[in-house]
Specification:
Blueprint (H helix, E strand, L loop, with lengths): L18 H8 L16 H13 L14 H20 L13 H14 L18 H5 L8 H28 L1
Helix pairs in contact: 1-2
Length: 176
């Protein structure tokens, strides 16, 4: 499998098909769906499919991204932030509609990141392991999508990436 889009290209062999071929087969002008028989395109799968197809040299129109304009994304961000702040203030973060593991702890740990936009720089220590609660994994019985092997590889990759960024940053500082 060409797993460049996972950035986990060192020592894993998982599947026998190229993701670009699969993505190309189900791509529409509106994007791609989470399941082959679905008519509902979502931003996550469309963005990933767009990136994979472009990465492998396919001509893909950026018009598919029009469905997910900045205004929609900003509205979704504002809605979810408001919803979580309201639930946190009422101490109701263990709501049945919030599917996550230890949301109160994550809210406390990452609250500065949610406000300042630096949350992308933080490592999420428990994200993606076999205990991660994920709607697709839970409802559609997909246990191999998030497991401890992927989690460990992701942590190693994250640390490697951070080390590379640090080295690049040191080089840039020396140039100044």
């Amino acid at each position: 499998m060409d797993c460049q889009y996972f950035r986990l290209c060192y020592s894993i062999e998982i599947m026998e098909y190229a993701p670009a071929d699969v993505s190309k087969g189900y791509w529409t002008k509106k994007g791609i769906c989470w399941a082959r028989n679905s008519e509902v395109q979502d931003i996550n799968d469309t963005a990933m499919g767009f990136r994979i197809l472009r990465l492998h040299g396919h001509q893909v129109s950026p018009d598919s991204q029009v469905l997910f304009q900045e205004k929609i994304l900003e509205d979704a961000k504002n809605f979810s932030a408001k919803y979580l702040k309201k639930k946190r203030a009422a101490n109701e973060l263990l709501d049945k509609w919030i599917i996550t593991n230890d949301l109160p702890g994550k809210q406390t740990l990452y609250s500065c990141g949610l406000c300042s936009g630096c949350h992308g720089m933080l490592a999420y220590p428990d994200y993606g392991g076999e205990n991660d609660v994920w709607i697709g994994k839970t409802l559609y019985r997909m246990p191999y999508m998030t497991n401890d092997v992927y989690l460990e590889l992701a942590k190693l990759d994250y640390n490697n990436c951070q080390a590379m960024h640090y080295d690049e940053w040191k080089e840039e500082i020396q140039r100044w």
